Amino acid sequence: MNVGLGTAGFGTSISESQAHEIMDTFIENGGTIIDTANNYAFWAGRGGESERVIGNWLRTKERKQIEIHTKIGAQPLDGRNFDRAEGLSKVAIDRAVQACLDRLSTDYIDVLYAHIDDISTPLLETWSALSSLINDGVVKRLGISNFSLPRIKELQEVISAHDLTPISYAQYRHTVIEPLKGVDLGVQICLDTEIISALRERNPNINLVAYSPLLDGSFEFDGALPNNYDSEANKHIVKKTREEARCYGVSPSALVLKKISDEGIMPLTMTGKTERLLGNMQLFQDEN
């Protein structure tokens, strides 16, 4: 099933009991990939809440049937913003990964992402440390998230020159409408054709992942789009998407997720309500 479960709100805006019910529903309906990060959700708590909730749930499941994806490098040291994040030095990576394993109640991570770029640490140090985790069996595959195009190309050269573990996953902000030109999304980077081309040039089979595909329900509910997406062109696309969804008898969110999947990109969906999750997954049921 080419859709993953986002968990940024687990343990904060979404209670642990709700989160367990959501994960049970996701797995029972064919889902396998649960996506988290060590800094979820510092903006509503301290960070680590999501992983801890998943770990408590995972202890009751068959581990090999579930893919756990997590991210490191973006936990704010001051608990407030990314100006002083933990980074991706070898010391920071080793410390963060051990903490992830403890919270997740597992002895391995299926996919580990470098969550945001750490320009203060040489890419060779970062990727050598991550590759060592692969060699030790602690991590199965590596990914990047929110790396700029120039840094992707630089990292690919480092990987090639030093025979390091390739990039298997790349996670970026992406949906069916484009943000306004020139908007500031902070550390978040939107997927575009240049980034896709650069990633696929070195690994044609790379797994592309879209976070925030549903823009917090913007396709479902009437009203203004988020400021960074509020344009007449985007409003027209949203209107057409709603009309098309009605023709199929599904929710607009379900149609958006399927459109992204049909691009060859795996979207993430997050909700605290099982009925909403089932609706979002509706167009993926035939893939089971």
Summarize the structure.
The chain is built from 9 helices and 8 strands. By secondary structure, the protein is α/β, with parallel strands linked by helices.
- Enumerate how many helices there are, as a single number: 9
| Cα-to-Cα separation, first versus last residue | 6 Å
Portion in beta strands: 5-15%
Low-pLDDT runs of 5+ residues are none
| Residues in helices, as a percent range | 25-40%
Rg (CA only): 18 Å
Give, in spatial order, the strands making up the sheet with the most strands.
1-2-3-4-5-6-7-8
Instruction: Give helix and strand order, one letter per element, not per position.
Output: EHEHEHEHEHEHEHHEH
* Overall mean pLDDT: 96
Q: Overall 3D geometry?
A: globular
Q: Biggest β-sheet, characterized? A: 8 strands, parallel, barrel
Question: How would you classify the helix and strand content by structural class?
Answer: alpha/beta
State the total count of DSSP E strands.
8
Strands, helices and their partners?
Layout: E1 4-6, H1 16-28, E2 33-35, H2 49-58, E3 67-72, H3 90-104, E4 109-114, H4 123-135, E5 139-145, H5 149-162, E6 169-173, H6 193-202, E7 207-211, H7 232-248, H8 252-262, E8 265-269, H9 274-280
Parallel strand pairs: 1-2, 1-8, 2-3, 3-4, 4-5, 5-6, 6-7, 7-8
Helix pairs in contact: 2-3, 5-6, 7-8
